[in-house]
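Section: Multi-chain targets

For targets with more than one molecule, the full set of components is provided together so that the structure can be written out for the assembly as a whole rather than chain by chain. Components appear in the order listed by the source. The example entry contains two components.
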Amino acid sequence: MAFKFQINPDIRFIHDEALLAKADACRPVIHARAVRPRRLVCLQQDPGKYMGWGVCEDERKSVREDERERAREDERGSAREDERRVEALPERVLRRGDRVILDFGRHCVGHFSVDIRKSGCAMDAPLYLRVRLAEVCAELAEEPKAYEGWLSRSWIQEEYLHLDVLPARLELPRRYSFRFVELTVIDTSPKWGVTFANPQAECLSAAEEEKQAIPLPADERLRAICEVSVRTLAECMQDVFEDGPKRDRRLWLGDLRLQALANYATFDNAALVKRCLYLFAAMATEDGRLPACVFTSQAYEPDDTFLFDYSLFFISALHDYLQVHEDPELLRDLYPVCVRQMNAAWESVGADGALHCGEDCPVFIDWSNDFNKDTAGQAVLIYVLRQFLTLGQMAGDPACAPGQMTGNPASGQMAGVPNLALWQTRLDRLTAYAMSELFDADRHLFVSGPDRELNAASQVWMVLANVAGEAENRRIMEETVKNFFPVRGIATPYMYHHIAEALFAAGLKTEALDLIRAYWGGMIDLGADTFWESYQPDMPDYSPYGSTSVLSYCHAWSCTPVYLLRRYAPEVFA
Amino acid sequence: MAFKFQINPDIRFIHDEALLAKADACRPVIHARAVRPRRLVCLQQDPGKYMGWGVCEDERKSVREDERERAREDERGSAREDERRVEALPERVLRRGDRVILDFGRHCVGHFSVDIRKSGCAMDAPLYLRVRLAEVCAELAEEPKAYEGWLSRSWIQEEYLHLDVLPARLELPRRYSFRFVELTVIDTSPKWGVTFANPQAECLSAAEEEKQAIPLPADERLRAICEVSVRTLAECMQDVFEDGPKRDRRLWLGDLRLQALANYATFDNAALVKRCLYLFAAMATEDGRLPACVFTSQAYEPDDTFLFDYSLFFISALHDYLQVHEDPELLRDLYPVCVRQMNAAWESVGADGALHCGEDCPVFIDWSNDFNKDTAGQAVLIYVLRQFLTLGQMAGDPACAPGQMTGNPASGQMAGVPNLALWQTRLDRLTAYAMSELFDADRHLFVSGPDRELNAASQVWMVLANVAGEAENRRIMEETVKNFFPVRGIATPYMYHHIAEALFAAGLKTEALDLIRAYWGGMIDLGADTFWESYQPDMPDYSPYGSTSVLSYCHAWSCTPVYLLRRYAPEVFA
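Its structure, encoded as tokens over all components, is:
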């Protein structure tokens, strides 16, 4: 099983009310816009699309016998082509077992509503209705009852509803993430049917789509990738940067770091990033460590899940923010939190400069546990430590009043100016260990773990950490392409992001662009409107959860192509 | 198929606002009382109970393997008997697939609510919960998904609910009819479970149970039958006399007539009967006919279903009311409606005095269509016409100002004093035809239809209509007992009521009491808390709807034993 739940009931967290208040001061305005469906569709088998499922407007191609039968009847009678147009929806009377699929033509995050009227005799029974909402049409081909994955089945977007009174406007109170809405009349009564009218999605986002006016690449494929990238980001921008608006709807540090980068390249909603940084800072453990994610939809509540790299990425996220926006107060408030993460991380480093992560705080890097992550973890620590030193220099700068720096005295950290010399020494020790013990200079590749395993993740992160120097970085990524491309066994756009960024960083722009075209473009070829949580080109139906039903098809960590292109290939926007 | 829907879209109805206002003036106070479950139970197979299902408190006897397994684990560990007590419910953590069945120990009509708390880590997914509510435990043994009956599946009392925020008090907004509530946790997440606390039913009725203080029979079986009879009636007394609080929840004339009789013998809520009479009177067709039922839960709306006997029973219901309560205004208002029903009925009578009902307004008598109903229909008309004459005499009485009688001039009915002589002549013609053409004096039984069929219903209704005279009535019922007992192929307590009443009317009190003990007592033996819509002793799982899932297990037309006993055997209450 690729996915493992951490349960740490004994860890105690603090809630820093002052920092929570600052988070709340940055709470975003949520913009709402009404969207109407574009067409009525049927499910049809389509081997060229994700999971083999597509949609069509022609009921003759439906997978459902009753829909094909109705289409045949239509052909025998008068031409009723028009009935299948969305405008004709109110004239279509649905009875027991009938269904209609609304295609909104775009991904929506928000609320669904529709008018329901009775057609026929007096309403002698309630209406029993099933509503399913799906980001990709393949979700509608799956039967939720058959779900046996290990994530909660409660994430599958379906509702069973009894309506005792018609006509009514059905306004589903919950928020959904969807392009398709399937309305199935489980039952009316033999004496009457129902019609639907004025279906509408009230789409919500903290991103102001109208204001987002970055130029788009002329290249058609890159333009499509950018558009889907921006849409994915916008859909995840809610009260916080959610990882996925379908599931889990919460704030993960690893996702936040990448969302923030894409955000600077597009909407540049600085307050939303600040809000998320403050939320993490406000909910550390008693000994100062940050959890991998926090819940914000009910109360502010930290998750008891810890990932070595995710905790460190708080430093990255603050560093990246301050590269774009000057904010001495933010630095003053959050630099101490960074110090605590670094101190905590350093506890896992041996005297020789080797990182040894424990089981209780593993390195994530990617969902896959089929490769050794020791070297990638070492590289992440180096990568972040460099950013930490940058922050330290900024924090020591007179612009940031030193007297207000409040490092944790217990951790050995001096109050006031951070001890940058100490951390520089530690950085040297980490890199020295990496070069002397983990780098195979003959093969121009890093090894990982006791078996000196070769894998792509080690190279990617060591290049991003810039351990071997510019020329060697290029050579390493050339060897990576030679040895590990096409990438196999990796399903997360999160890992693909780092592969692409490492290619760019090493100067292999052509290879980076090819990867973006093939990987994110591959999702679009399969029908994506937004980029997915998971896409493994060599096994497109992979899910770490035991089922694709609960996968998120609009996922934060997949939104980065627009950032990568804007930063490393700005000329494509010309 | 024993059940047939009428669909008459072309029939136009009037809405008499003045009469609707009088109906509203009689709108009852609905009394609410809180009821808590008595115990936690498991389903177990029990051949002695309805459909072979019973409940027990011992999980070792559960039909579910997981519950038996938990019970075995309990035995291996410390004695956790207490955990199965309802008081221990809040300590029981439920996770994916777990369920608990609450037994309220009595039939409830009303709202269900329960506290739900999370137990474990932060709530990283919604709770997905299924709530099923059942009048009899056998309902819980059926899988609603498998339902293929022809009544709407929407009547099956189940809800699927997502709860995004916990803790919460779940207050289901719909009204249900239940003794058992099954809570099934479809899913939480591996990181947490849920507990339930403070389950409660808010029970609703227009009957003031505290004020109902009729004495009960000393005989244990008759006492139980009376208690269940009164409970059945009380549960159906809502905003109108509903036929069944689970299904259809509406006002049928045939049920109203019997409910009203039981009501006079117990709660004697006169206003509620008046309300229902006014509702029917207010929603006749353009030509004055009354539908078999009206809807009142949304708007006041007549059903487009017509039954010959049900329309006539409006006259019976008014007659019965005025036997108990003096109300000249009611008579003035409603006598013209009675005249219209009689006139309409007379259109189906030939010159020879034979009734010939058409397909568009059939005689009901009973669900079964396996016997000929011509003679029973003729008898119903005679039965009601006698009551009509009584009403006419009352209407002609100076106490009821004649000038205000507003018969329909178009029907040949004189305004003012009703033409009682004419109707007496017609009555004679009907009875003469019955005795000369339908009565087999040698066999002391009435025949029915072109094949001169012998059946119980003909005898029962001819005796109730008192066509043959007192002595012959007794003989007829003796022959009925000889030829047709034990009754077969009859599933409605409605028909059984008339059989029992005919036995009493004919002086066969012992046989009547035996039938009540055997038939209504039989339901109690099978586990009834309230009397059912359907019970066929020779085929207990019979349903005219293709499934027992949608049967109503608390049904108006089954509540009459208390009336029968109070009227015909008052000595049992001594």
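The radius of gyration of chain A is 26 Å.
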